[in-house]
Specification:
By secondary structure, the chain is an all-alpha fold. The chain is 67% helix and 0% strand. The chain has helices at 2-36, 39-47, 60-70, 82-95, 105-114, 121-137, 140-148, 160-168, 177-185, 190-193, 199-215, 221-230. The longest helix has 35 residues, at 2-36.
Length: 231
């Protein structure tokens, strides 16, 4: 029994040591990225892009759809959603591979602007540190605005104004409710949900986003059905 307990204690200590090492590597990756490209400069670079779009230029329906499908606790977490991460860890363990990351909107900005898409724990740790840095320096609405101006919508479109003009031939403020909901679902898999290539799949994804909006109280079931059926 004593030998068994010793083995357990050794395993726990080894696990803690490995965890500390991984966190340290992730922290160093974050610090190096921030030193190479300070956050203020990175944000200035994004805001100076052609067709940068302000939140005030976007329909509330679109913003509600994005929050619902990407990060429904966006306005209450500090850049890291512990609940989502816990769920992702359980699903990864079940699948025996890295299939889900539990990233918040803030973490997605950190990953897309500072790191690679490589599925490594150290990169994930660095992304979390960067997300906290972003949250400390910018308001939630500023972060959401950065997000919709940096995500990829497929077809070579990297901001929402270009996307609306390309897919719908209109400015963001003129989108219908259905178009807003469809657009919010595209970044999950841009090549799959590109409405110019796979309209049926884009509509399936639109329904998934609308279902999330109902789940989180942004739409009633009746409103969802009217939007989906009228589009």
């Amino acid at each position: 029994m004593k030998t068994f307990l010793k083995i357990i204690i050794v395993c726990i200590l080894v696990g803690i040591s490995i965890g500390v090492l991984i966190i340290g590597k992730g922290y160093n990756m974050y610090k190096e990225a921030l030193e190479d490209n300070p956050l203020e400069e990175k944000v200035g670079e994004i805001e100076s892009k052609v067709n940068y779009t302000k939140l005030s230029e976007l329909p509330q329906m679109y913003l509600n759809a994005v929050i619902s499908v990407e990060d429904h606790r966006f306005y209450t977490h500090n850049g890291i959603d512990i609940i989502a991460i816990g769920r992702a860890i359980i699903n990864d363990i079940k699948a025996m591979e890295f299939v889900e990351g539990g990233s918040t909107i803030t973490q997605q900005i950190a990953k897309n602007e500072y790191f690679t898409q490589e599925k490594k724990i150290t990169r994930k740790i660095a992304e979390m540190f960067m997300a906290r840095e972003i949250e400390k320096n910018y308001s939630k609405n500023e972060i959401l605005e950065l997000y919709i101006n940096t995500i990829y919508f497929g077809n070579g479109y990297y901001n929402i104004k270009d996307t609306c003009l390309g897919y719908f031939g209109k400015l963001p403020k003129d989108m219908t409710d259905g178009e807003c909901i469809m657009l919010a679902g595209i970044p999950n898999a841009p090549s799959v949900y590109n409405p110019k290539v796979n309209l049926d799949l884009a509509r399936e994804r639109q329904k998934q986003v609308a279902d999330k909006m109902v789940e989180y109280g942004y739409l009633t079931k009746e409103e969802e059905e009217n939007i989906i059926n009228s589009d």
